[in-house]
Every structure is written in structure tokens, then in C-alpha cells.
């Protein structure tokens, strides 16, 4: 890429390279940051891996309640890269109203696409039927959560005042965005631990349980979103009321994850040198990881269904570390052959997501069989590994 300089250049070489970069950027459109596409492609690949192999290898499937497995990093990684993309897309906004309209339209597209794909309309790869009772449709899900995080991060970037790296510290330049992170976190903690739930009783229950699940489900049901739903299979045995793991309350911290990704994107846009970018990214990642593990040690568990603060910090830090590694491989040393497939997937992430989530790929593959419909590769994999 034209805007990338070697990681180990001297300061004089960096200055000369920066002058050349500025002149070339003035003449040509800014090139795509390949590591962002690769990271997005990695998210889609991990999603397919845990969706189709999670039942075969439980060690990579979602943790039933507290803790994290590989599958529990997929959603935070999607939110992280969405935030990074916002910083790149809206680094220069000439018309805030027009930009806001585009953001809202894009968010609505993602939201309603998510309702269509994950609201119950499709009945799975084993059934060719479709359709859903609109009174029982699932209104929140993965794409919907990404849409919420995206619109929050984008509106912060467009409307909140900030300095464009004029020699000030990072926190001072984007003070209002960090205040938004703090505000959303405080609201989340206040509702999670301080909200009174009328039909909840204090009883002696297992050590991994608490009132937070009751509050999470209560907020969701009061908004008439999941009162018709079922109790999630991964919920603890003492939870008897329906709640959505992609619900309203946990969407607050999910939005924070997107804003954290936005901060990483600021370093990518505002800084010109690899070492400066990587240093700041590593500092944030290490700080978040340390704070997240400390909170987990103090009693706030790593929990995806509730999207706890500790889970938010640990997964955001993991996303930041992963992004640093990909940035070094792809944009610094240009090892593109190793990641070309992931880069292609990242450039077509939404299309592939639709094909995977709707099970179109699986349905097409299992349509090819030998002599009898049940003699297809999908049925063989399920009978050989899942139901062995």
C-alpha cells in the first residue's frame, strides 16, 4: 500500500516517506487498509467454523454461561471491526446531516436484514419450510446488534466534537467519545445491578448465579421484545424466564465495544507511522485486558449472554491484539499470500454472512446426493461426527 512504510525505518526515512505519502494521497484516492478486510474475513471464517463445527468440537462452541470459548469472541470481533471501519469511512465529514442520513439508512438495512435472517423465518438446513408468526418474531440478533453498535459509534464520530490529533493527548482529543463509553457503561451497570425486578425472589442459589439475569430479561420483556420467547438453552438451571442474549441491556456494552474499535480506527487514520500506531494499539489492548481480568477476579464474570464489563474489556483487548498481528503481517510486511482468502471474504462479508445464516450454502450442498437424498455429504458429516 502507498501509505505504508517499513516498520523499522529511521525517523529521517519516515519523514521522507511521509512527504511522499502526502503528495500521493493528494492525487489519488486513499487505498483500502488490507488488514481491516482480513480481520473482517477472519470474523466471518470464525463464525462459519463455530456454527458448523461447534457441535462436533464443544471446546470451540459457546460457553453455557460464565467463561469464554472461541465462539464467544466472534460477536465482539465483528463489533470491533465495525468501529474501525467507521473511523475510516467518516474521517472527513463535510455535511453532518447527509452523513447521518446515510448512517441511519445503513443501520436500518442491517437491522431489518437481521430480523429477516434470524427472526425465525428460516427453519434450518434440515427443513425446506419457511415462515414466521409476526407476533413471535425475534427482533434482535447478531446483525441487529451490529447495526445498533454501528449507529452509536458513527453518530459519536459525526457529531461529538473532537480535535484531529493536533499535538494533544489521545484522551483529550476524543474526550466526548470516552465520556460516551463511560456513560453507557454506567447505565448498563446501574440497570444490571440496581434495577428492581418485581417478580424476582431472593433465594440461596448456586454460586454462579445472581440477580443480573433477572434484570437483563426484565428490561427485555418490559419492552415487549422477548416475553413470547423461550428460555435460552445455555441459561443456568435457576433461570426460568425468557431473555434474549442479544437483548437491549447487553446492547449497551456491545455499543461500547464498537466505540472502542472506533478509537483504534482513530490511530489508524490520524497517525502515519507503523510504530506509533502499534504502540498505541498495544497500550490500549494491554490496559483493557488487565482491567477485564481484574474485574473477573473481583467477581464480575466473563459472560457473553449478559455482555458483562469484564467480557467487554477482555474480548475488545483480544480483538485489538489480533488486529495488531494482522496489521504487521499484511500492511507492514505485505505477506498478502497468507491472507488473500480472508481478505476476499472480508470484502464480501455481508453476502457470505447472508448465505451462511440462511443456510443456503448447506441446502445447496446437501441437494447433491448419491442414489437417495439422505446420501449427501451434509447428512454423512452429521451422522458421522455429531450423532455418532
Automatic annotation (TrEMBL):
The chain crosses the membrane at residues 38-61, 73-91, 103-122, 142-162, 174-196, 248-269, 281-302, 308-330, 350-370. Coiled coil: none annotated. Keywords: Membrane, Transmembrane, Transmembrane helix. Residues 1-21 are annotated as: Disordered. It comes from the Eukaryota. The keyword Endoplasmic reticulum does not apply. The keyword Transcription regulation does not apply. This is Heparan-alpha-glucosaminide N-acetyltransferase catalytic domain-containing protein. It comes from Penstemon smallii. The lineage of its organism: Eukaryota, Viridiplantae, Streptophyta, Embryophyta, Tracheophyta.
Amino acid at each position: 500500500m502507498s501509505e505504508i512504510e517499513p516498520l523499522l525505518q529511521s525517523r529521517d526515512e519516515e519523514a521522507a516517506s511521509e512527504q511522499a505519502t502526502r503528495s500521493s494521497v493528494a492525487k489519488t484516492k486513499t487505498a483500502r487498509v488490507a488488514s481491516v478486510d482480513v480481520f473482517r474475513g477472519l470474523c466471518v471464517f470464525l463464525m462459519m467454523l463455530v456454527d458448523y463445527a461447534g457441535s462436533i468440537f464443544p471446546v470451540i462452541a459457546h460457553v453455557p454461561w460464565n467463561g469464554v470459548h472461541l465462539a464467544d469472541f466472534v460477536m465482539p470481533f465483528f463489533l470491533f471491526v465495525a468501529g474501525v471501519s467507521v473511523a475510516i469511512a467518516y474521517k472527513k465529514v463535510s455535511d453532518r446531516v447527509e452523513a447521518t442520513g446515510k448512517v441511519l439508512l445503513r443501520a436500518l438495512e442491517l437491522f431489518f436484514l437481521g430480523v429477516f435472517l434470524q427472526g425465525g423465518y428460516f427453519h434450518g438446513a434440515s427443513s425446506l419450510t419457511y415462515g414466521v408468526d409476526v407476533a413471535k418474531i425475534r427482533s434482535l440478533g447478531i446483525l441487529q446488534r451490529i447495526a445498533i453498535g454501528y449507529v452509536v459509534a458513527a453518530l459519536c464520530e459525526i457529531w461529538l466534537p473532537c480535535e484531529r490529533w493536533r499535538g494533544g493527548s489521545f484522551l483529550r482529543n476524543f474526550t466526548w467519545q470516552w465520556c460516551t463509553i463511560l456513560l453507557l457503561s454506567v447505565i448498563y451497570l446501574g440497570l444490571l445491578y440496581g434495577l428492581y425486578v418485581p417478580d424476582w425472589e431472593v433465594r440461596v442459589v448456586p454460586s454462579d448465579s445472581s440477580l443480573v439475569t433477572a434484570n437483563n430479561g426484565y428490561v427485555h420483556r418490559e419492552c415487549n421484545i422477548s416475553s413470547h420467547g423461550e428460555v435460552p438453552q445455555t441459561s443456568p438451571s435457576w433461570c426460568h424466564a425468557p431473555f434474549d442474549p442479544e437483548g437491549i441491556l447487553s446492547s449497551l456494552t456491545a455499543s461500547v465495544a464498537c466505540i472502542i474499535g472506533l478509537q483504534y480506527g482513530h490511530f489508524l487514520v490520524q497517525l502515519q507511522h507503523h510504530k506509533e500506531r502499534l504502540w498505541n494499539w498495544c497500550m490500549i489492548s494491554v490496559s483493557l485486558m488487565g482491567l477485564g481480568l481484574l474485574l473477573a477476579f473481583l467477581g464480575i464474570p466473563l459472560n457473553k449472554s449478559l455482555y458483562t464489563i469484564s467480557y467487554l474489556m477482555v474480548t475488545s483487548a483480544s480483538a485489538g491484539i489480533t488486529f495488531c498481528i494482522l496489521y504487521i503481517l499484511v500492511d507492514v510486511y505485505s505477506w498478502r499470500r497468507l491472507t488473500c482468502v480472508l481478505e476476499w471474504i472480508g470484502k464480501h462479508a455481508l453476502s457470505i454472512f447472508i448465505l451462511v445464516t440462511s443456510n443456503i450454502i448447506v441446502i445447496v450442498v446437501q441437494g447433491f446426493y448419491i442414489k437417495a437424498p439422505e446420501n449427501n455429504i451434509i447428512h454423512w458429516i452429521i451422522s458421522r461426527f455429531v450423532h455418532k
